[in-house]
Task: structure prediction
Amino acid sequence: MDKKKLKSYRDRLLEERASLMGVVGRNEDYGREADTEATQDPADKASNSYTKELLFSQSTNDRLILQQIDEALTRIEDDEFGVCVNCGNEILTKRIEALPWVRYCITCQDLLERGMLNEEE
Result:
């Protein structure tokens, strides 16, 4: 992959990382606020509990993507970006453009989703 393309992917990954860091921080703040509200009404308590659980779930997903972005940035630095971490085949450009933090080629991703491939780590 040429250096210009790698730089554009790196810049995009850094932008996405910064955006997700803000979202995760806001979700944590909202979750803490929902915790500190002294509500007497059971319906309000249930609503706050649901909101907190939803924010926790979103935060978990965002943290997973942040981890994948950090791994993609490391692969760029190690000249391994755009290569499937399982089979070593090149990942299609359209797939990388859609999800620049992607780790697997289509074939290995399908195997992973069907439970036929063990993830590293």
Summary: The chain has a mean pLDDT of 86.
